Amino acid sequence: METKEQNQIIEQDSKKEFKKEKKERTAVLNIYTSFNNTIINLTDLAGTTIAKYSGGGSTKQSRLKANPTTAMFVAQRIAEDAKENGITSFYVKIRAGTGQPNPGPGAHAAIKSLTRAGFKILSILDTTRVPRGGPKKGGGRRGRRV
User: Fold this and answer.
1) pLDDT per position as a tens digit, 31-76
2) Nearest to residue 76, comparing CAs of 35, 106, 44, 34?
């Protein structure tokens, strides 16, 4: 008798569904956009790469690598990997090519695609490198002779 009751209690405990608390994981999304390509790198907060995709891997035509539509496809692939790893929110860092005044056409499309996929974007930071001063001008004591 006691063993049957114990078995029933054990079965009831195993049938109970426990709600798993969704732990919010945050990651850093580095987007490099130039007028030739879009590269998206997903890392954890320590800097370890989780996924990395580029526009060149999504299209056959070289001229379409920087296209917003291609950037959208790249962002969807990043979103799939992020969901597999349980990531729910991003810190986004956008970087354009050095000396370019603004990012390429793929940055906005990639961010928009990720928000549509259900990810929370905590902040967007522009990390474009800006030259200050540039290289030393040519010439010596008598100046640059043209």
Assistant:
1) 999 999 999 999 999 999 999 999 988 888 888 888 999 999 999 9
2) 106
Parent domain of 80:
25-126
Q: Please check whether residue 48 is in contact with residue 87, taking contact to mean a CB–CB distance below 8 angstroms.
A: no
- Residue 6 in any domain: the answer is no
CA distances from 107 to 15, 69, 96 (A): 47, 11, 9
What is the identity of the amino acid at 29? L
- 145 is a domain residue: no
What is the pTM (predicted TM-score) of this model? Answer: 0.74
Domain count, the chain: 1
Please write down the HEC assignment for all residues of 72-103.
HHHHHHHHHHHHHCCEEEEEEEEEECCCCCCC
